[in-house]
Amino acid sequence: KKHVHVEAKGRKGGQPCDESILLACRQIPKVELHAHLNGSVRPQTIREILEERSAAGEALPVTELQLKDITACGDRSLADCFRLFDLIHAITTTHAALSRIAAEVVRDFAEDRVVYLELRTTPKARPEYGMTKESYIKAVLDGIEFALSQQPGQQPCDTTSKDLSSPSRPGRGDGAPKGKVDGREAAGCTLGVMAPRMDGCCGVALSPADGPAAVTSDDSADGITDGVGIIVKLLLSIDRREDAAAALETVQLAARYKCRGVVGVDLSGNPYVGSWASWSEALAVARAAGLGVTLHAGEVYTPFETAAMLAFRPDRLGHCCRLDRELAEALRSSAIPLELCLTSNVLTQSVPSYPEHHFAELYVAGHPVVLCTDDSGVFGTTLSREYAIAATAFGLSMSALMELSRKSVEYTFANEQEKQRLRSIMDRASATT
Ligand code: 6MZ
């Protein structure tokens, strides 16, 4: 494809894209398929949660030095990343914190003109905070739904409207996130009122709040004010530290919460930990339950495991940085769509530099690829920035990036009606790019 020049100018770390390219990428309606909730938390929110806990007289779970490490973006080894995630997890321990960060992450992606977001998170039981895996999921969904209900063009939060929610939705109407979201008080606002539903169940769509992403024309057929909007879905992650029973519990919860927008499961976590045999059965159960399955594969060189993952034929794979020639060929012939995270892979040294990222080779070969952020908070990036890096490192034109985004719609776990809506958003944007 004539747009690709793999010898281009990207460099490791730093800011390998210029402002004008970044601004142009912000105008592209985008699809985010690989974003971890606790990796996408704003550094400022981490600080505020700690301040609140300190003001409440709690002993803080991290030192000043560790806090600096969490909130500074930059090169870190994969092992350091996982130490960092443990620290973040020690901070985002409460239902209120989870709801808050979920709401803010949705808002951040919407403002970056992401029109479809599949957010993923690992449900965690924390008995000391009265949290079960199920209550964790509900808190995250509450946060997502709260963010959606707050967007312009939506009905206002209304504590009298609980009965409008579908009776088939478990846990509805049990309260908005307590405390602050985006610096605004969220407590007391009931989540019974939702954005217009896309599929008679949990699909939600709304308009981005403001910024260059906002489109003001009212051309939607389904009552959404600006015709662009964001659709948000949730994937539940199995952490590689979990055993077969814990993995199955997560899958069962994912199936139970399909009615609130859970569309799939992910396998992630420290790639040096655990073994495929522990999770493969649970993942097969997920597939049988009609959930999408995506796996982190080949983030480090684990050829036997990567081969087993390819043989499982998941709906999507993440990373696939370290494949030998045989595995690379197996991946190509599988045509399994790949979620690629440029900044994450370069900063963690899973790939040596942007120009050497396997995106280029796969893109040229016509393999289905989607650009994603991975952990926008930890790596200090946005999806627009990932697009801008691709433009700079591989010489992709804006229309090539637009086409990349348009194709990403086909790899989502959205239903056909939602895909249709996304296709029309992409078609309209393509006409002007
Ligand atoms: C593998 C990753 C990851 O689930 O608590 N996670 N797993 N590779 C990566 N590359 C950098 N980045 C994030 O979000 C944080 C969790 O997502 C997974 C890890 O399991 C991490 O603990 P949640 O919301």
Automatic annotation (TrEMBL):
GO MF entry, a single one: adenosine deaminase activity
Name of this chain's protein: Adenosine deaminase domain-containing protein
Catalysis performed (reactions): N(6)-methyl-AMP + H2O + H(+) = IMP + methylamine
GO biological process, one term: inosine biosynthetic process
UniProt similarity note: Belongs to the metallo-dependent hydrolases superfamily. Adenosine and AMP deaminases family.
Skewed-composition ranges (Polar residues): 151-168
Organism: Volvox reticuliferus
Pfam families: A_deaminase (PF00962)
Keyword terms of this UniProt record: Hydrolase, Metal-binding, Nucleotide metabolism, Zinc
Region (Disordered): 151-182
Segments of skewed composition (Basic and acidic residues): 171-182
Annotated Adenosine deaminase domain residues: 29-148, 227-427
Cofactors required: Zn(2+)
